[in-house]
Amino acid sequence: MSSIVNYEHESGIPVVDFGPFRDGTRKQEVADAILRSFKEVGFVYLINHGVPQEKMDGIIGWAKRLFALPMETKMLAPHPPIGTHHRGYSAPGLEKVIQNEFDPDKIVQSRKTTPDAKENFESGKENDKVMPNIWLPDGILPGFKEACLDYFWTCYEVELNIFRALALGFHINEDFFTEYHSAADNQLRMLHYFSVPVKDVEAGLAPRIGAHSDFGTITMLLQDHAGGLEVEDPYNPGKFKAATPIPGSLVINAGDFLMRWSNDTIRSTIHRVRAPKHMYGTDCMTPERYSIPYFCSPNYSAIIDSVPGTWSEAVPKKYEPIDSAEYRMKRLAMSYM
């Protein structure tokens, strides 16, 4: 029987074949591998995850077409000046990625003096009453809206399967996490990192995305071939390893909310985007980079308490129940302060 896990990637992040979970042949084995990776590293590469290759190639292509538009055209779908409505186009320097303590009531910010060398576009489900989508006017980029929505809902089906696997890993009801994610209160982001001098990235003069953790439950990342994503070694704080692209894969990482939900049994690992490792110390320009993260969060209406089995008299709960909407709005707002 072939192994469903490959531990040989240079990042130290396991590569898990999700196919045997999807077809039902080795569900528990896959579930155990994913949860183990989340506990040890906070990240996992998934292959055979359920997003067709043509859709992954297609959404990267749409991102390239979008960001190639003139600035004045992209600004016809402007991101509001506050982070609590996280939709539309963000020009370079608008978003300020910061790292803060996990507790949203204890904000310790590390704000950069130089804006990130990137631009992005946010969308979600249609008819979202909390965060309505902000699209370009009709006729400017025909097919773009439809492609974003199609990819959003494809990712949502994969998300539900990943949560089913996590539940099996915890040996609880398979639908435990999916019931808290039934509303698809998620966010699809298109990111474009500009080509900048490698030496400026290394010196902090042209940061791409600084070291941070995600605040939701999981993030499903599609990255192009350019490279640059780095993940902190959980056993050597401050040391980062390159999470180089694996063709056809999605990079899945746990966020702060899932860490809290699991009573800290799952890691929410710090990561960043720099220059590709093989270019360090050169006078080259970084390649442009396109990536598509899909950020997953519980329903706005949910109250989240610790996952069954992650606490006991010997290992008490570390956190009080938390309101999903309140927590999320606080974290979003901090990106646009």
UniProtKB/TrEMBL annotation:
SUPFAM superfamilies: Clavaminate synthase-like (SSF51197). InterPro entries: DIOX_N (IPR026992), IPNS-like_FE2OG_OXY (IPR044861), IPNS-like_sf (IPR027443), Oxoglu/Fe-dep_dioxygenase_dom (IPR005123). GO terms for molecular function: dioxygenase activity; metal ion binding. Keywords: Dioxygenase, Iron, Metal-binding, Oxidoreductase. Pfam families: 2OG-FeII_Oxy, DIOX_N. Residues 184-298 form the Fe2OG dioxygenase domain. Belongs to the iron/ascorbate-dependent oxidoreductase family. This is Thymine dioxygenase.
